[in-house]
Amino acid sequence: MNFLSGLDEDLKTILVAQVRNIWTHTSTAIEGNSLTLSETAFVLEEGLTVRGKPLRDHQEIFGHARAIDLVYGLLSAKSIREEDLFSLHKAVLSESVMDIFKPVGKWKNQPNYTNIIGVDGKQHIREYPAPLCIPLLMSQWLQRLNDALSADTLIYADLHLDFVTIHPFFDGNGRLARLISNLPVLRSGLPPIIVPTEKKLEYLRIISDYQSTIPGLESLKDLDSLPKNEERQRFADLCRDFHEPTLSLLKEARKIQEKRIIS
Predict the structure, then answer these.
(1) Is pLDDT at 119 greater than 80 in this prediction?
(2) Which spans in the chain are helix H?
């Protein structure tokens, strides 16, 4: 990974663990995982469980950390394929029970929905793109990802927002988006962008606000028809702020490296 260049091996090891810990903690916490950052680090570094915390939460932590390793392994790939996304999905949902209506490592085969609060202040049901639309939409999405692997890191926001809007899996879409959309970021030599837990509400609200601007979302068939609007720009602006946690970790490691060189 290029963001580790110039660091001694011990600093590389520590930084990789720090990034893994915070990336895993924040992404799983957004989905309701109860482990704190310190507990996440303990579980991953010691391989032990935290008393009183659900087994499912531990499985999610290990699964996400495994998925991070898979993402790193894709950095040298010439292109990313459906099968790579399916492998990531299997890692992220390693705790799931086999269910033909909730396939793991395959596109969803049933419609999926979520509850939203509309501009009228009332609750409504949002339906994501239908299962029959997913293969074409994700083919377009993968093409954009592969085109972006050497592009500016700002493509992260577009990839991320489009992925969660397509919602191609029955579950795990947010975690997958926060993982795979970082490939161009990592390929450019920067550490991953993470969504801080304290920004969860703002992050989810902006995504929902954007999806509310898409007429007939359930029948979406072409990514080019997605609106380029104020809500989309708000999400891009928010994502730029999300880079600070891992950039700070990298900055601290480089300061220690510089002290070693001087001394």
Answers:
(1) no
(2) 9-30, 37-46, 55-73, 82-92, 134-148, 155-166, 173-180, 183-187, 200-211, 230-241, 244-262
Cα–Cα distance for residue pair 7/19, rounded to 1 Å: 15
Do 146 and 198 form a contact (C-beta atoms < 8 A)? no
For the chain, the structural domain boundaries read: 2-248
As a whole number of angstroms, the distance between CA 251 and CA 140 comes to 36
pLDDT value of residue 1 = 81
* Distance (Å, whole) CA 50 – CA 150: 40
Q: For 247-260, give one letter per residue: b (16+ CB within 10 A) or e.
A: eebbeebeeeeeee
For the domain spanning 2-248, the CATH number is 1.10.3290.10
CA distance 28 to 175: 7
Return the structure tokens found at 67. Answer: 């998925």
Structure tokens at 154: 């700002």
Indicate the average pLDDT of the chain.
94
Q: What is the largest CA-CA distance in the chain?
A: 63
The Cα 229–Cα 84 span in angstroms is 31
Q: For the residues of 164-222, what is the DSSP string, one character each?
A: HHH--SSS-HHHHHHHHTTHHHHHTT-PPP---GGGHHHHHHHHHHHHTTSTTGGG---
